[in-house]
Predict the structure.
Amino acid sequence: LLYQQALKQNVWHPNTHNFYGELLFRQQKFVEAEQIFKDGTLKQPTNEELWLNYGAALASQQKFNPAIMAFRKAYETNPKYTQALRFLANAYQSLGDVKLAQEYERLYLST
């Protein structure tokens, strides 16, 4: 309830979306978390953490292709946010694309 109120009052603050989405994610409410993170990316499209969390919520629902797009956006938004490379590797591995999974894993390990 507190996070819902915080979203109404601080709709433009990225931490509000991240904290509330992470709470829902930890409760395995992946659909709800996905929506909170997606809303956050619409309001703060340059926040790499929101993009990564959005992708993680998607991947948790086996939505790997949209998750990959979100992980790429996280990395494009901030190339120093190399954690996105690890998530990309995992998503490609889940899709069975070993070659791309290894490529992103190598990129991650080389940073």
Notes: The CA atoms of residues 77 and 85 lie 13 Å apart. The chain has a mean pLDDT of 91.
